[in-house]
Every structure is written in structure tokens, then in C-alpha cells.
Amino acid sequence: MKFFVRVVFWWLLSGVVLVTLVAEQPEQVAHPEPTVLLTKEEREFLQELGTVTMLVDPYWLPYELLTEDSEFIGIAADLLELIFGRLGVEYEIVPTADWAETLEVSQSGGAHILAFLNETPERQEWLTFTDVYFVDPNVFITRQEHAFITDPRALDGAKLVLPEGTSVEERLRRDYPNIDIVTVPTENEVFEWVEQGKAQLTLRSLTVAAWTIREDGWFNLKVAGELAGYENLFRIGVLHEHAPLVEILNKGIATLSPVEVQEIVNRHTGLVVKHRVDYGAVVRAVAVMSVLVVLAGGWALHSRRLNRRLVEQTALALENSRRFEELSLQSRSFAWEVDAEGLYSYVSDNVKQVGGYRPADLVGNRFFYELTPVEDRPEVKSHAFEMMHRQETMTNYENRLVRADGEVIWVESSGVPVTDSRGRVAGYRGLDKDVTDRKQAEFELERYKEALEQMVSDRTRQLLAAEKLAAIGILAAGMGHEINNPVSFILMNGQILQEAWPAIAQRLAGHSQGEDSIGGLPAGEFMQRARQAVDDILEGGRRIEAIVSNLRVYAMHGETVELSEIDLNEAVRGALYFCQHRIDAVTRQFDLKLHPAPLLFDSSLGHCEHVILNLLMNACHALTDPGQSISLRTGIGDAGEYYVLVCDEGCGMDEATLDKITDPFFTTRRNEGGTGLGLSVATQMAGELGGRLQFESTPGKGTCVWFWLPVRCG
């Protein structure tokens, strides 16, 4: 009931006020006579300055307007006319095309003053400001269905549109980061954006808002609340180099009375307060308003209930929104919505934390697939549009997203289709969650898995190789034992025959005649050949014995090596004894240079010979033409180590082959009977002697191998 009484009272009061307001035609403000006393110094300054040049906003009604005839009209124009008239100071307008040009000309020093603007830290860089001479509150303008705004902090994610270059933009962005602020070139576009729903609200001065809504017919817009502490405090800005002009203008500003200011405002907003009341009009108006009040009262009560319900629902929605934003922040997620073409129509503020973008960067400007790497776009577009057109729910779809700074992250997308009233697809809305850390952990785990599998494979191969080597060693030991027995008989009998041969030859010579033949050969020739055969038998037996000895060395591979003093040069000669025939068969150029002094050290002669023999045999296998050479050197390195250097001019090896040549069973001669054990065993034997093998090779040019051995002990 109390609320109804208040409604009636205010309707009656408004009726009285309305009928006492009569529209009048704007009048030209007469240039007043000078009434302000200036000091001698101030008059001299003005005389030296000359006519004051002034910059204005050429189109900012009802404050300022510069007509095609360069006539300056509006609230600011009338107030400045009073100020300058009472000071007795002449001024002229410097015309500009728009507010942006006005600021640019002012910053470049193109005029003494800026007529009508708020003071900001940015503008203080080139302007000194006078006292305030007009105050106008800033209010929120929304569509009619929007709730009254009591707390701007509840406007999370709301889009607020402003003209470019306004003084409140910087402060709003600082004080209310929860609001998405966009700018447009003109004042008229600001109201168009709100009216068309492109933005939820704007913040404009009350005078400008009221005038614009009335003049342009924005009747579906309303004033939805005032932003406290954001009043427009209009001043005159003076270039720093003309600072004395500030105090002069302040004297003129001080002469303005509130009544004068209100009269000027009323004149330019189409309303003026009359000094004499037409009481007949009052009675008639009250009679009409009384009828309207009864109807309005009932409607007001109904509206109050609706507003209370709307406020409760809005509060609940805001609370749910806050909870959602908090959860999104904690989970590094952002909500989004796209239209049927994939263009962003909404993005939550959390996109700044996840992707580094502002919502304004994406909404209406970017398609969702433009945020994916170029190489991923075909697959992402195909999947997303297929889900959209089939009206299916997307669940945990992993894809990559390019952040604003260029970093590529992984996100997990989930969403649902949005349909219109006819059931047709209108878009898609969902959530993108940053899962980069999880994906990196998965990639690391996969790499560890692959590395472990490779290690197991390598170890298995090594175990198999070791088993094969052990089997070959056992076979070699058995073969050596079996071969050694008959060879011993051959050597023993051959030596007996060799020692007895002179006596045998003498006996045969005494019994044979010149024409006698033995075995189909003349006796003399037979005797020579028989002696040579005995020598060959002994030589062959010794070679078999040496081979058996090497087999026994191979069989002992891996066991403790018994060391004794040897000469490296003798080890080379021993190896050449077994392969010289092979070298002679593959090349016409074998160059052997041994160190002139014995290279004595503690080692195993059999092991050294085996390593050198293997290097020489590999050099033979590498040659493709008898004109290619093989060389062998022995010497002492810079660090005092002994070395054997074997080089060939054969086919050479690439890096990939060099990395594998010491692996067991790796061979480039598989089709020629190679087993891949030679260099593997040689490398291990060199290590058992305290030495090492070093390889250098160039494809098509040849290979060099150093067999390094430790310096003699003691």
C-alpha cells in the first residue's frame, strides 16, 4: 500500500512539473559585457597571445556542434560565450572533421585550448585544466528488457560499447575488468549496437543519452542505472605553454551561476522552466493524470512483483555464472559458442588465461578452426562440422590450439548442438579444457616405453649374440683339439723325414744309375722334388698349427688374458703370415712401414695378431679394383700409445654403417658369406688388452682403422 501511495504522489508531482514545462525555440546568447577584472599582467599576457584559438568536437550534440557555416552551437558553446564575454576575450574556432582529429591537432599545438572535455592522466601530458564548469552524471543505457543495474561487478562478460577516444574507457577497463569493452567510431553506432543486441549496454552522459534517445527515436532503450563516481566533470584544457590562461579562464568560470547553466541545458534539451504558472493548465493536467494514476498504480504493483522475481532470478543466474567461472579458472577451461559457419558468437573471459585472447578478439572476428595449426585444420573442421550437422554431442575431442603468443597447446573440446525453433542447426556451444600438461606426460610416457622396448630388444640381441659366440667358442676349442692331434703326427714325422733325408738321398744315389727312374721321373729330379715335398709338408703343418692356435685364442675370448712381453711389429708379421696371400690376390699396392725400433709392451700375442688379421682381411674385402691400395703402419702416438694403422682405398662407409660395424652379426657381406662377428670380436679383444679401435671412413674414398694399445708397463 505504501508503495502505491508513493507511486500516486510521484505521478501527481510529475504531472505538475510537466505542465509547467513549455518548449521554446533556442535563443542566441547575447555576448555579455565584460564584468571580470583582470590584472595588468593578465591583460598584457592576453594582448601578447592575441585571439584565443579553440578546438571543439564538431559533432557531439547537445554539447557541441560545428555547423556547415562554421557556427558553434550547443550547451558548451553557450557556456563558453558567457565565460569569454565576461572576460572580454575574443576567440575563434579551428575546424576539424571529428574528435580524433581534434585531439591530434591539439597534441601538435594547433590551437591554444580544447573547449569541453574531462581531465585524464593521458591528457595531462599536454594540457593544463581549468576548474569544472559543467557536471553531467554517466548512466547505463540498455534495452527495455534489461534489469536495472545496481552493481556493475555483476556484469561478468557483458559487452559494453563506447565511442572511440572517450575519457572513461581507460578507467572502466581498470575498475571493471569483468566487463568486455568494445569501441566504435561514432556516438550513433553506440546506440545502434545496443538496440540491435550486439552489445548489452553502454555508458553515456545523462544529457547526451536523453537527447539522443529522444531525437533519434531509440524508444526501446532506457536508462538502467547511474555509475557512481563516474560523473563527467567538463573543463577547458589549455596547452602547457599557455598556462597563465588557466587562471584567467577560471575567473570567467566562477561567474557562472547554477540557474544560468540549467537554463542553457533546458534550452538545448527542448525543455525550459517557466517562471509563471498557468494554474488552469495545472487543474486540467491533474484531472487527466488522476485517471492515469489509478491505472499506473495497478501496473506498478504488477511490475514490482515481476521485477522482484526478475531480480531473484538474475541473482541466481549471476551466482551460477560466478561458480562456473571459478570452476573454469581452476580447470583452465573456457566456454564458447559458434554459429552454423563456425564464427565465434560468444567466448567466456577465461579464454585470456587459456589462449591469451580477449573475447573481443574472437567474437564476430574469428572462426574456431582459425585457432588450430594450419596442418590440423582439415581434420578439425571435418570432425566439428560433421558433429554439428548430425546434431551429435562432442565429448573429450583432443585437438591443438594456437595461443595468441604463437604457442601451441592441447585442448579437450566438448559441446552440444544449438538448434532454432524449427529444429535446424544454428550453431554449437561447449567448453575447451587445457590438457597440455597431460598430453606432454603421455608423450613422455610413450617415449619412455619406446626407449625401454629398444633397450629390451638390444639386450635380447646381445644375449643371443653372446650365446652364439659361446657356442662358436666351444666349437672352435673342440675343432682345435681334434685338428691338433693329427697335425702333431704330421709335424713329428715330417721332422724325422727331414732329418733323415740326407742319408736317404745318399743311399738312393749309390744304388741308382744315370738312366734310372723313380716314380716315372729321373732319379735326380725325383730326389729334388721329394726334398721339396718334405719341406712343404712341414711348412703346411706349421701353418695348420698356427691356425689351431688362433682358434684356441678365439675359444678363450672372454676369459682372463695371460699377458707377456711382446713386440707389436712381430704381431704384425705374424698376422701377415696368415693373410699375405689374400692381400697379394686383391691389390698390387701394399705399403708396409713398421716402426724402426721394437714396440715392446705387455700383451697377448695371439690376441694382437687376431685383431690385426681381422683389420687386414676387412681391408681386402673393401677393395673393388687391384689398383686400389692397402697400407699398414706401426708407430707411437702423441700420448705415447702404440698404434697399428690399417688404411684402404676401398668403397668406404657412411655414418649409419659406422655406427653398427662393431655390433655382433652386423655385416655388409651377408651375400658373400660374412657372419658379422669379426669386428665385434676384434673390438672386444682390443678392450681386453686395454686398447681400442678408432674408425674413420668416407664413402667412395676408403677407410682407416687405428688399433691403439697401451704403453709398455714399467
Please describe the topology of this protein.
Elements: H1 2-19, H2 40-49, E1 52-55, E2 59-60, E3 64-66, E4 72-73, H3 75-87, E5 91-93, H4 99-107, E6 113-117, E7 127-129, E8 134-136, E9 138-143, E10 159-163, H5 168-175, E11 180-184, H6 187-195, E12 201-205, H7 206-216, E13 221-226, E14 232-239, H8 244-253, H9 258-269, H10 279-330, E15 333-339, E16 344-347, H11 351-355, H12 359-362, H13 377-389, E17 394-402, E18 408-419, E19 425-434, H14 436-511, E20 517-518, E21 521-522, H15 523-555, E22 564-567, H16 568-586, E23 589-593, E24 600-603, H17 605-622, E25 629-636, E26 642-648, H18 655-658, H19 678-688, E27 692-698, E28 702-709
Parallel strand pairs: 1-5, 1-6, 10-11, 10-12, 23-25
Antiparallel strand pairs: 2-3, 3-4, 6-14, 7-14, 8-14, 9-12, 9-13, 15-16, 15-19, 17-18, 18-19, 20-21, 22-24, 25-26, 26-28, 27-28
Helix pairs in contact: 1-10, 3-8, 14-15, 16-17, 17-19
Protein described:
The protein is an alpha+beta fold and 714 residues long. It folds into four domains: 1-22 and 274-330; 32-261, Periplasmic binding protein-like II (D-Maltodextrin-Binding Protein, domain 2, 3-Layer(aba) Sandwich); 333-434, 2-Layer Sandwich (Beta-Lactamase), CATH 3.30.450.20; 560-714, Histidine kinase-like ATPase, C-terminal domain (Heat Shock Protein 90), CATH 3.30.565. Helices cover 47% and strands 21% of the residues. It is built from 19 helices and 28 strands. Strands 1, 5, 6, 7, 8 and 14 form a six-stranded mixed sheet that branches. A five-stranded mixed sheet has the order 11-10-12-9-13, sandwiched between helices. It has a five-stranded antiparallel sheet with strand order 16-15-19-18-17, sandwiched between helices. Helix 17 packs antiparallel against helix 19. The termini are far apart. Residues 9-30 and 271-277 have low confidence and may be disordered.
